[in-house]
Amino acid sequence: MRLLARPVAALALGLVLGVPVWAAADDAPKSDPPAKKKSTADKAPDAATVTPGPKTDSTDTPATPAAAPVATAPAPDPAPAPALPQAPADKASGSASVDPVAPPTGERATTFTIESGETLGKHVVAVSAGVDKISRAPGDVTVLGVNVDLAVGITDRISAFLEFNPYDHIHAGRPTELSLNPTLSGCPLVPLNSHQSTIYHFIDCGAGTAGAAYVEDYPFASHNGGGVGTLDFGFKFNLLSQQRGSPIAAAVRTDFIIPTVTGLSDLLNNEVQNGEFNFQVMLAVSRKWGGTIETALNLPVLITIDPRSGGVALLHQAKQFRPSFGFTAFPNKRFQIISEYNLVVFFGSATQNTTFGPRDPLDSVSGIRYYFFKNFALDLGYRSTFGLNQVTDKNGFV
């Protein structure tokens, strides 16, 4: 029995000293190399317990004094425990070194109106609301629109969106230039068989009114007023993504534009719709050049259907090609600088002129975006329209 006393005492001492040290080392942060070294070194006595383990039924008393160091053995090792909360604290307070702002890749968010070629991630939801003002001719027309958008990522490559204009306001600075204005009530609605080579479609209503016309993309604008806008829904399909290693991002977007107002009398009062289902398809291409700048190009084509009343076409409305180019400086930062350029080119049988100028307005929007929180930003921009010399209000905030 005395021969077994020493191994048993060594076993007890090893268990008392080794197990707490091993446990403390296992609880310590993985980034602490000394803790790992100690834990592997102290496992040697544990292996020795396999052989003498079954003989612990010995009642020999000399094994008892060997347990005396129990009170002092675990004292040095609990020190690494306070290091545990430091890792999340460092991560949470890392706004100075790692900016928390997520780069916008939503349906409308690359610049003010231009989209990225990326799509929303799976199950990501994006919500936006805004106010925009544009100018048009003839009639010195200003259109102020309020819009709300909702987009949802279906997969990493496909997202769906819903857009709605709850109210659009029309201001006609020169209503006598518009053929639908009540002061020109004796005029025909539009020249369906007109072939004049003019920069505007005009209606010859006799002496003094030969220049009367309509705004191509707001043909029922005629006086100060407005109303509810259209409902737009569709899908965006990602073709190429920089996140998947492509040099550029590219996507195709389809828009189904549903009128909320139909009927001639309602359209004349509403002014902001044409009362027909319209369709748009767009190619969006973008590229991020490191963290310094992101450039984007949008090439949408809007296919319009002629407004009708009683099955008869009221006017021949031109199709629209709306190329846009823009860039965002510091796209991954909390504060961003944005600039974009938008051109509207009307084409088709209703258009006799497709050159730059009042008929095909070009405008630019420049401004800033600031993220108050990781997923909440405010955009402020100012629009300037070129070529509309007869329009008195060519600027506006967005």
Outline:
With 398 residues, the protein is mainly β.
Describe the model.
The chain is mainly β and 398 residues long. The chain has 5 helices and 19 strands. A hairpin with a 2-residue loop joins strand 11 and strand 12 (312-313). Helix 1 (2-27) runs antiparallel to helix 2 (33-41). The longest helix is centred in the first third of the chain and has 26 residues, at 2-27. The N and C termini lie far apart (94 Å).
Number of helices: 5
Strand count = 19
Radius of gyration: 36 Å
Mean model confidence by pLDDT: 73
Helix content: 10-25%
How far is it from the N-terminal to the C-terminal residue, by CA?
A: 94 Å
Key descriptive features of the protein:
398 residues, mainly beta, 15-stranded antiparallel β-sheet, two-stranded antiparallel sheet, 35% strand, disordered N terminus
List the SSEs and their pairings:
Blueprint: H1 2-27, H2 33-41, H3 44-48, H4 86-92, E1 125-136, E2 141-153, E3 158-172, E4 202-203, E5 212-213, E6 225-227, E7 231-240, E8 249-258, H5 264-270, E9 278-289, E10 293-303, E11 308-309, E12 312-313, E13 319-321, E14 324-329, E15 335-343, E16 345-347, E17 362-373, E18 376-386, E19 395-397
Antiparallel strand pairs: 1-2, 2-3, 3-6, 3-7, 4-5, 7-8, 8-9, 9-10, 10-13, 10-14, 11-12, 13-16, 14-15, 15-17, 17-18, 18-19
Helix pairs in contact: 1-2
